[in-house]
Amino acid sequence: VKERGRNGFEFFHPSIEEKSLERILLENELRKAMEHEHFHIDYQPKYELLTGKLVGAEALVRWNHPELGRIPPNKFIPIAEETGLIVPIGEWILRRACEQNRAWQAEGYAPFRVSVNLSVRQFFQPDLVERVREILEDTGLEPQWLELEITESIFAETDNAVPILQSIRDLGVHISIDDFGTGYSSFSYVKHLPVDTIKIDASFIRDVHMNKESQAIVRAILTIAQTLHLNVIAEGVEREEQLAFLHAEGCREGQGYLFSKPIPRQEIETLLKAAE
Ligand code: C2E
Ligand code: CA
Ligand code: CA
Ligand code: CA
To answer: Which three-class secondary structure state does DSSP give residue 271?
Structure first.
């Protein structure tokens, strides 16, 4: 009896119970948020390190719940992935980001590229390429001004990833590998990939100004990028010392709190105006 009691306690451990309650709650709330369009997008600027020029922005979804307040993507994206809700939510984000970028161009701002994160689940929708094509057509955005950020995890799922990537790229859309270096086989597979940019994961940038191993990894990634003629961007740049290292090692672009946090549409417009 004692033992069963102990197992019972372990099974119904409060933290597990709470977690699943939170999950159920968030899942329901996600469905409602989808219906009522309670999401919006912030944009984080990307800069060319040499010139300080604004070269693009990453669209990052934001959920402001009427009662629960702001819920960070790290909390709800995984649930959206598991439930499949990421498909309609992701499509909304993609459409919204393309619409917005087209609107900026129509207002006369110098064109720049907006990147949208594509979840694994979205990536394997059979009609993905058609959806992307249709969204570009509907919004009137030229494909070159859209970039899709995908993670290495798609390559673990199937051998089909490469032809899908190729079809997206054939549309003229740019492809970036997000969180580069955190997967298993980065270095071996990247050679065969139809991609434009690799994004050095923030975990290597975090201590790159003081850690020899991170320095070696970042250098290796920069060398690969150069050899394969890929563009490269560092994410999570927070400090001048990190920037100095990246700059000295020939990293072209950067993104991070040192330059700017993700900001609302209006603040991007201020930056675009200032860049004119
Ligand atoms: P990610 O794609 O790697 O995005 C970068 C995350 O790092 C963002 O967090 C961004 O705000 C944060 N960040 C940027 N610069 C810095 C910095 O200098 N220091 C630190 N500490 N953090 C920085 P966010 O917006 O909370 O998003 C977290 C993750 O959620 C994203 O990681 C991405 O995986 C996912 N996500 C966010 N928006 C979307 C979306 O629209 N669609 C999909 N599928 N996933 C999204
Ligand atoms: Ca990203
Ligand atoms: Ca249509
Ligand atoms: Ca990332």
So the answer is: helix
